[in-house]
Amino acid sequence: MKHELIVALDLPSSDNIPQVIDALPAEITYYKVGLELFASEGPRALEYLKKKNKKIFLDLKLHDIPRTVARAVTAAGRHGVALLTVHAAGGHEMLKAAVQSAKDLGESAPVLVAITTLTSLNNDDLKELGIARSLKEHTVALGQMAISTGIDGLVCSPHEISTFRETLGDGPVLVTPGIRPRGADLGDQKRIATPAMAVRAGANFLVVGRPILQADNPAAVAKEILKEMKEATDH
């Protein structure tokens, strides 16, 4: 199983992107552009990444009526996006529409990964939303439903990786945020793990933002994470 580090470009402006990418190890090929940056600048935020032949993880958590989401998937494919998030809470028909749109794009289609439950939520948050089942039950149910529609994979916290591997096998792509190097600040992520824990559990992509971007030496932190991932794979 291949494991990749995705650096989350949680930045206010794309003007900062060249400085970040040029400072980090060349072996990092995936970068995430999220809602803040894309809402601020749109496709302009992707230009430098494409210029440097980096792979783009566009994390917009698409959640709308099926027709709108299908068109958004088509637009993302035209921008050369490699990975794209949709929200499983959008339901079966929305997810099927996204899958069909990706199929129509052929080789330029992004890999579609579904959000199940945001990593900032816990059981108390679900109760407040009126969801009676536990966080684990809710997340697994949404994940199974998403994969049944043809979605390529899931975004899940480190603590759901093993469960999804047990229930869904090795096929689905698993993208895992909430990764923190040992000793790092938790921030607003309530369900976290180290890179080694996530790799051993079966994650394909590990998403790391602030621990790298806000470090005194971002390159050193990124190299340490890559080293930890490799060691976990080797063992």
CATH class: Alpha Beta
- Elements, N to C (H/E): EHEHHEHEHEHHEHEHEHH
Report how far apart the termini are: 13 Å
List the total number of helices.
11
For CATH, the homologous superfamily is named as Aldolase class I
Question: What spatial order of strands do you see in the largest sheet?
Answer: 1-2-3-4-5-6-7-8
Describe it:
This protein is an alpha/beta fold and 235 residues long. It has a single domain, classed as TIM Barrel, CATH 3.20.20. The chain has helices at 17-23, 35-41, 47-51, 66-78, 92-105, 123-128, 135-148, 161-168, 195-201, 210-213, 218-234, and strands spanning 4-8, 30-33, 55-62, 83-87, 111-115, 153-155, 173-176, 205-208. α4 runs parallel beside α5, α7 (135-148) crosses α8 and α9 runs parallel beside α11. It is globular, with a radius of gyration of 17 Å. It starts with a strand and ends with a helix. The model has no long low-confidence stretch (mean pLDDT 91).
